[in-house]
Write a structure and sequence with these properties.
23 strands; 6 domains; 8-stranded mixed sheet; alpha/beta; TIM Barrel; DNA replication; DNA_pol3_finger; nucleotidyltransferase; 5-stranded mixed sheet; DNA-directed DNA polymerase
């Protein structure tokens, strides 16, 4: 009869997973138990599920605390009481207020105050549902307290937080981490008590033998509590849209589908209508109508705001979704199985993933919260990781930094460690995996038929949308299914590029960005794919993808769709990637495929490439029905299946293969292929959705390269760093300029072919300074001089120095060092603090200054300090002149020969090998800005523990693999750059004019 038990969801306090608390109760013969985590109900549903088929009666509630100071414990009488507790908890968490000492009226809950709290507050009045909690430790106080007369109000409140001394020690360490203090300085008030452990019921009865009424009251209270959940029942499967019945929803879905069908399929094909009829029948029968309508409502709102979006994932397998406009992938064209999305035996709602621009998702989320009453973001737990815990515990124990680094990085000999260091490792292993703090799921939104608080409490993250205290796994167990509203930067690159084109080239004619068919058939766009010229393009710009596109000689949409899945690790590790490439390039090699496999997967030459191929092979090769084929795919992908279901399907698979006359060897090979890649491959619809977005970006890159690249870097770039994208702008004919107070905005801007870096790139330049400059310029026009700027902008000498050092005043034609000296003399610390323009401008004194000699090297180092990179070519900064060497564009003329080539490192990847060694893959651009790749095999790679950014002289043999050229490096040598001349004292003197 424990009314206050903590799991490790009492964050940075508790030490037991929920299941282990239940095991502890069983071990001690406890029959009734309440989980009451501190300001948290994450464990409640899991606890109810674990105990529903056991003899342990489960109660749920909350231990309400301000910090570590307990105010009261709330126990839910029933489901209504559970909701009331969650509402009360959430109200205070959202507003960051402390819980009051007196609980509010919560009629369907029991409220228990500890005896110590009652005594300290001199509490006299108790509501009918309020009680005084007595522990074994507080019994002695009760004997001398006036409260012993309130016999009907006394219940057992024995807190359970730990199992043993090890748990208690871990608890103290967690509290020290939470308080950011040394363990030796952790206040007692921030800790639990060692005796907060589970005592066997017989011992409790012995302790309370003089107060049997307390145990009787406790038992009566627990008997009145019953919270029930129907686990496995889909809580939001048949969502009720306000004001409409299920029949009205069904009618609306059918009407919309047939109304919009001619837009997607102008030619009335019989197979299209048959597919639509089939899908609508399944959707209506399974009760998923509102799910489609809600997703349609969300994307319709996005369209009304001109927000771009991509409907992807397995939802792209649905012709209904395609016709409604939720997705933009034609499942007929791509031969996509609807059963991959929804099979007739599916219980959970279908899984739409909808990507929005990172700039637009917040507004889409706001719309969802306003449109649907019972809504919350899905929570997720960030857990403690062993190495990070080792670092935190090292601080708690007061270890020196070098010792902490040694332990967290794993570079130590255990036998040489001292006692404290071994303690750090021991407890980091124990705490590893504990929930650390609640965060927000990357895209999950819950839309429910009833209150969110029926399930858990909520918290309010910085963006202001309430977020539930349970993660996806617990939600799925209860039967809550999320909507996935995701964000990416690729979409905003497209919309921003179009906006920049309209500004920079007002007369330019931009094709309809939704007319993907035109882009697919454009040979100039396809040539970018064929040569791997995809820098900045969503999803296809990485070195690995660029190499794959070159090897495949990708020149069409379907081939790009295949490449998007072939690049996945499961296909590569099984050897299917290389086989697919060779069969693609060599039609004769396709004959090596098994005839049945080739017939099933004609487009991919008999090689399994997509998740759907698992279904195809299971259905057409092994004769499984499509429902079982989808279960097989889900099981192979690590999704939950019924107990024994996968074993039964494998048995059927093998029996069917035997009946069809396949050899055991062939059956095993096919089964192994399915097993090896199913969990890593993409759905074909997913790859197709991404390929559509890639084509949109490729169109803009081909015909508006400068505007597209400016949009790309304004949206955070992509796979590469900013300097690499700037090099790409130069390659496309653009001129890069340092920030300028008259030309630059906060982001990057373009005027004709001149690209001005944004003021936001200047390190340590404050946002308020940038805003003030831009607002002043907008209202009063360009700045005419340094004096004019000083008169108009309220700025400190530190902030203006940053602008001067980055040469943002070069329009004045004065050397920046000259201006910097003048600024120091002119800018008075007692300058009036006002943003208003001066009515009468004070006369500026002038100063006689020496002439300054311009230095490209100083300019470059100032830029490296303030921007992070120089705007000149880094090859110009080398100490030694370049030797004669080959250029990247000519490497094709040196295949099989050894060459030397200079390259600026763009990206490097260190990869482990099967024998425990490692190798490097490096991507560089040469002095002309052309890309080339090198490989350092293990024998060479072991000479280089780390490869840092910089210019290298690379020596090796040029190789060619299916059109992709690279260099097998024998050595690389990082080239030294000239030293910083700013560190040398110039020695000049300045004469100040009177």
């Amino acid at each position: 009869m424990y009314l206050n038990c903590h799991t490790y969801y009492s964050l940075r306090y508790g030490t037991m997973p929920t299941v282990e608390l239940c095991e502890l109760a069983k071990k001690n013969g406890v029959k009734q138990l309440a989980v009451t985590d501190i300001n948290n109900t994450s464990a409640c549903l899991e606890f109810l599920k674990i105990t529903r088929r056991t003899n342990l009666k489960a109660l749920v509630g909350i231990d309400f605390r301000n910090g570590a100071d307990q105010q009261y414990v709330g126990i839910a009488k029933n489901n209504t009481g559970y909701r009331q507790l969650n509402e009360h908890l959430s109200n205070y968490i959202h507003t960051h207020k402390e819980f009051p000492a007196q609980a509010p009226p919560l009629p369907d809950c029991f409220i228990i105050y500890s005896l110590e709290k009652v005594i300290s507050q001199k509490k006299k009045d108790f509501r009918e549902n309020e009680f005084i909690g007595i522990s074994t430790e507080s019994l002695r106080k009760l004997k001398f307290s006036e409260y012993q007369k309130l016999k009907d109000k006394l219940v057992l409140l024995q807190t359970v937080s730990f199992r043993n001394k090890k748990d208690y020690n871990a608890h103290r360490l967690l509290r020290a981490i939470d308080n950011n203090t040394l363990l030796s300085k952790l206040p007692k008030s921030e800790q639990g008590f060692f005796h907060h452990q589970m005592i066997p019921p017989a011992d409790i009865e012995k302790e309370f033998e003089d107060f049997p009424h307390i145990l009787e009251n406790t038992q009566n209270l627990m008997n009145l509590c019953q919270v029930n959940f129907e686990f496995g029942r889909d809580q939001n499967r048949n969502l009720k849209i306000a004001g409409r019945s299920e029949q009205e929803d069904e009618k609306k879905l059918v009407e919309l589908c047939y109304k919009k069908l001619p837009e997607r399929y102008p030619e009335k094909e019989e197979k299209v209508y048959a597919r639509v009829e089939k899908e609508l029948g399944v959707i209506i029968r399974l009760g998923f109508v509102s799910y489609f309508l809600i997703n349609l409502d969300i994307v319709s709102y996005a369209r009304s705001q001109n927000y771009p979006f991509i409907g992807r994932g397995s939802g792209a397998n649905s012709i209904v979704a395609y016709i409604l406009g939720i997705t933009n992938v034609d499942p007929i064209e791509l031969d996509l199985y609807f059963e991959r999305f929804i099979n007739p035996n599916r219980s959970s709602p279908p899984d739409f993933d909808i990507d929005f621009s990172w700039k637009d998702r917040n507004d889409v989320t706001r719309y969802i919260f306003e449109q649907y009453e019972h809504t919350a973001l899905m929570g997720t737990y960030v857990t403690f990781k062993r190495r990070a815990v080792a670092r935190e515990l090292g601080k708690v124990f007061g270890l020196p930094k070098e010792n902490i680094d040694k332990l967290s990085q794993g570079f130590f000999n255990y036998k040489e460690l001292d006692h404290l260091e071994k303690l750090v490792l021991r407890y980091s292993r124990l705490i590893d995996g504990f929930p650390n703090y609640l965060s927000v799921h990357s895209g999950g939104i819950m839309i429910l038929n009833d209150s969110v608080y029926n399930y858990a409490g909520t918290f309010l993250p910085p963006k202001g949308f309430r977020t539930i205290q349970i993660d996806m796994n617990i939600a799925e167990d209860v039967g809550i299914h999320k909507f996935d509203i995701l964000a990416q930067r690729g979409l905003s690159k497209i919309t921003d590029a179009i906006e920049i084109i309209n500004q920079n080239q007002p007369t330019a004619k931009i094709k309809d960005i939704e007319d993907i068919k035109v882009f697919k058939e454009d040979s100039a766009i396809n040539d970018l794919l064929k040569t791997g010229d995809c820098m900045g393009v969503f999803y296809v710009e990485s070195p690995a993808m660029r190499g794959l596109l070159t090897k495949l000689q990708t020149d069409n949409y379907m081939n790009l769709v295949a490449a998007s899945s072939v690049i996945r690790p499961g296909i590569s590790s099984a050897g299917m990637k290389e086989e697919f490439i060779r069969r693609h390039r060599d039609p004769e090699r396709r004959k090596e495929a098994h005839p049945v496999m080739l017939k099933i997967m004609k487009d991919t030459y008999g090689v399994m490439v997509y998740q759907e191929d698992v279904m195809k092979v299971a259905f057409e090769f092994a004769g499984l029905d499509l429902d079982d084929a989808d279960v097989l795919r889900r099981g192979m992908s690590g999704k939950k299946t019924s107990k024994g279901q996968m074993e039964k399907i494998e048995e059927t698979f093998r029996e069917n293969c035997k009946e069809r006359g396949y050899s055991v060897q062939l059956t095993n090979e096919v089964w192994e292929q399915i097993s090896s890649f199913a969990g890593y491959a993409f759905p074909k619809g997913h790859s197709a959705s991404y390929a559509v977005e890639s084509y949109q970006s490729l169109y803009l890159k081909k015909y508006f390269p400068l505007e597209f690249m400016v949009a790309a870097i304004n949206n955070g770039g992509g796979f590469y760093d900013l300097q690499t994208y700037i090099q790409e702008i130069r390659k496309c004919g653009g001129e890069i300029h340092a920030p300028c107070i008259n030309e630059s905005d906060h982001p990057n801007t373009i005027h004709n072919k001149d690209v001005y870096l944004g003021l936001g790139y200047v390190k340590e330049l404050e946002d308020k300074t940038i805003i003030q400059i831009l607002e002043n310029r907008q209202f009063f026009g360009p700045f005419k001089s340094l004096d004019d700027f000083i008169d108009r902008v309220n700025i400190s000498i530190e902030q203006i120095s940053l602008l001067l050092k980055v040469n943002a005043f070069r329009f004045t034609k004065f050397d920046k060092h000259h201006l910097l000296w003048k600024a120091y003399f002119k800018l008075q610390h007692n300058k009036p603090k006002s943003n208003q323009p001066l009515l009468f401008k004070s006369k500026h004194r002038d100063f006689e200054l020496p002439e300054f000699e311009y230095s490209k090297l100083i300019e470059a180092y100032d830029q490296m300090e303030l921007l992070g990179f120089p705007l000149c070519s880094q090859f110009d900064l080398l100490q030694e002149p370049l030797k004669n060497s080959v250029e990247a564009k000519n490497l094709k003329n040196y295949i099989g020969k050894e060459v030397e080539i200079y390259g600026n490192l763009v990206n490097s990847k260190k990869t482990g090998t099967s024998n425990g060694k490692y190798m490097y893959f490096g991507t560089f651009y040469d002095i002309e800005g052309n890309i080339f790749d090198i490989v350092l095999f293990p024998a060479v790679a072991e000479k280089y523990s780390h490869i840092h950014k910089g210019i290298y002289l690379c020596y090796g043999t040029v190789t060619e693999d299916l059109g992709f050229i690279s260099i097998n490096a024998k050595w690389i040598s990082r080239q030294a750059i000239q030293t910083d001349p700013r560190l040398v004292d110039s020695g000049f003197k300045v004469k100040i004019a009177n």
